[in-house]
C-alpha cells in the first residue's frame, strides 16, 4: 500500500517579504556639492547625534579645469561633461526632495574668465545654482570637516587640503583650549578665521594660504618633462618654492603636541597603498595615522613602479593614477618642511565641511564630543 501524500506537500511556501526601508524624512536632509578642478562630488546626509549620516552620494571625474592653464577659460568639452554630471546630482536632489543645500565651485571657476557664463549655463540646463566661493572659505570648510580627527593632545594643528587646482594650508594654535574642547573649538571656526569675542575657548588661526597648485594644475605645469623621477623632483621643488609666504615654525617645527591632518584623494591613496588595500575601505583609511617615513616609503615605491606600473596598481586605481605623482610631490614637499610622526588621514573634505556648517548653524547637531 502506497503511503499517503501529506496534505500540502509540494506547495510553494508563502514568501515572506521584508518591508521596504523607510525613506528618510526630507525635512531632515541636507546636501553639499563640491565642484572642483578635477571632480564633481555631492553628499546628501542627515544629522545623527554630533555626526552626519550619509543617505546618498555622487562622485565623478569631470576634469573641469582641463586646458585652463593654457587658455584661461573652461573648455566646451569640460563644461559639457560637468553639466552631464550635475544633471545626475539634480535628479538625486529631486528624488530625495532636498530643500537645504549648498552647491559650491572652487579654484577652476575662481580662475576661469568664462566662469560666470558657465554658472548661468548650469542654472539654465539643470536648475542648480552654483556658488563660486573664495579660497578662505574653502580652507575654512576643509578645516571644519576634520574637527572629529583632532586629538586632545594636539596644541599645534596643520590642516592640508590638496585639491585639483589649489592646495589650502591652515595652521591653528590650540594651546589655550582645554583638551576636551579642541574638536569643538575647530567647529566654531565656521564663523571665520578671525578671532571674535566668544564665551568659549577659541582656536587661533596663526596663518593660512591657498597655493594655486593642485594635483591637476601642478601636473600640467610639468607635462613636457619626460623623465619620471626628474618630473617628480621638479614638481616637489616648485611647490615648496610657492610655500615661501607660509612659514609658521618652519625653522623650528614643533615636536610635541603637533598634528598634521591631510584631506585629499592623494593622502587617502597613499594610506591605502601603505595598508596594501587592493579594494578601498574608508573605515580603515579615515583617521589612520602615518609617519613621514611611512609616507616616504610609499612614494618611493610609486617611483620604482614607473608610469606603467602605477597604471596597473590596484591600490592606486584608474581615476587616481594620472594624478598621484603630482599629489605625492606636494605631500613630500610639506613633509620636508614639517616632518611628523602624526599625519592623520582624512577621507573627508569640503562636502563634509559644508554639511557640518549648515547643520551646526541650524542647531541640529548635538553639542557633544566628536
Itemize the secondary structure elements and their pairings.
Elements lengths: L29 E6 L3 E10 L2 E11 L6 H4 L4 H21 L3 E6 L1 H5 L3 H12 L4 E2 L2 H11 L10 E7 L4 E7 L8 H6 L16 E8 L3 H7 L6 H14 L16 E6 L1 H11 L6 H4 L3 E2 L1 H20 L12 H14 L5 E4 L3 H13 L8
How is this structure best described in words?
The protein is an alpha/beta fold and 370 residues long. The chain folds into two domains: 26-133, ATPase, nucleotide binding domain (Nucleotidyltransferase, domain 5, 2-Layer Sandwich), CATH 3.30.420.40; 136-351, Exopolyphosphatase. Domain 2 (Nucleotidyltransferase, domain 5, 2-Layer Sandwich), CATH 3.30.420.150. The protein contains 13 helices and eleven strands. Strand 1 (30-35) and strand 2 (39-48) form a beta hairpin. The longest helix has 21 residues, at 76-96. 41% of the residues are buried.
CATH class descriptor name of the largest domain = Alpha Beta
Number of helical segments with 4 or more residues: 13
Characterize the overall form: globular
Please give the alpha-carbon distance between the first and last residues. Answer: 74 Å
Summarize the structure.
This protein is α/β, with parallel strands linked by helices and 370 residues long.
Amino acid at each position: 500500500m502506497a503511503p499517503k501524500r501529506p496534505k500540502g506537500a509540494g506547495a510553494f511556501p508563502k514568501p515572506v517579504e521584508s518591508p521596504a526601508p523607510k525613506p528618510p524624512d526630507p525635512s531632515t536632509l541636507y546636501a553639499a556639492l563640491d565642484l572642483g578642478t578635477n571632480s564633481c562630488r555631492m553628499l546628501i546626509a542627515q544629522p545623527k547625534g554630533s555626526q552626519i549620516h550619509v543617505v546618498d552620494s555622487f562622485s565623478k571625474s569631470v576634469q573641469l579645469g582641463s586646458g585652463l592653464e593654457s587658455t584661461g577659460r573652461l573648455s566646451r568639452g569640460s563644461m559639457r561633461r560637468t553639466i552631464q554630471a550635475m544633471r545626475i546630482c539634480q535628479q538625486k536632489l529631486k528624488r530625495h526632495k532636498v530643500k537645504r543645500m549648498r552647491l559650491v565651485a572652487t579654484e577652476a571657476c575662481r580662475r576661469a574668465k568664462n566662469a560666470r557664463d558657465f554658472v548661468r549655463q548650469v542654472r539654465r540646463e539643470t536648475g542648480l545654482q552654483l556658488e563660486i566661493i573664495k579660497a578662505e572659505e574653502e580652507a575654512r570648510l576643509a578645516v571644519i570637516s576634520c574637527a572629529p580627527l583632532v586629538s586632545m593632545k594636539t596644541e599645534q594643528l596643520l590642516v592640508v587640503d590638496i585639491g585639483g587646482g589649489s592646495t589650502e594650508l591652515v595652521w591653528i594654535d590650540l594651546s589655550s583650549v582645554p583638551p576636551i574642547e579642541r574638536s569643538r573649538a575647530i567647529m566654531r571656526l565656521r564663523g571665520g578665521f578671525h578671532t571674535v569675542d566668544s564665551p568659549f575657548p577659541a582656536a587661533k588661526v596663526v596663518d593660512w594660504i591657498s597655493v594655486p597648485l593642485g594635483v591637476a594644475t601642478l601636473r600640467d605645469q610639468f607635462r613636457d618633462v619626460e623623465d619620471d623621477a626628474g618630473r617628480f623632483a621638479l614638481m616637489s621643488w616648485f611647490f615648496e618654492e610657492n610655500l615661501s609666504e607660509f612659514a609658521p615654525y618652519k625653522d623650528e617645527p614643533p615636536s610635541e603636541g603637533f598634528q598634521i591632518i591631510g584631506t585629499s584623494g592623494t593622502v587617502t591613496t597613499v594610506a591605502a597603498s601603505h595598508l596594501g588595500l587592493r579594494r578601498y575601505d574608508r573605515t580603515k583609511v579615515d583617521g589612520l595615522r602615518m609617519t613621514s617615513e611611512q609616507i616616504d616609503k610609499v612614494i618611493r615605491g610609486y617611483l620604482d613602479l614607473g608610469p606603467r606600473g602605477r597604471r596597473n596598481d590596484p591600490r592606486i586605481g584608474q581615476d587616481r593614477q594620472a594624478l598621484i605623482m603630482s599629489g605625492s610631490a606636494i605631500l613630500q614637499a610639506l613633509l620636508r618642511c614639517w616632518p611628523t610622526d602624526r599625519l592623520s588621514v582624512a577621507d573627508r573634505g569640503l562636502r563634509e565641511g559644508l554639511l557640518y556648517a549648515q547643520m551646526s548653524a541650524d542647531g541640529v547637531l548635538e553639542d557633544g564630543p566628536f
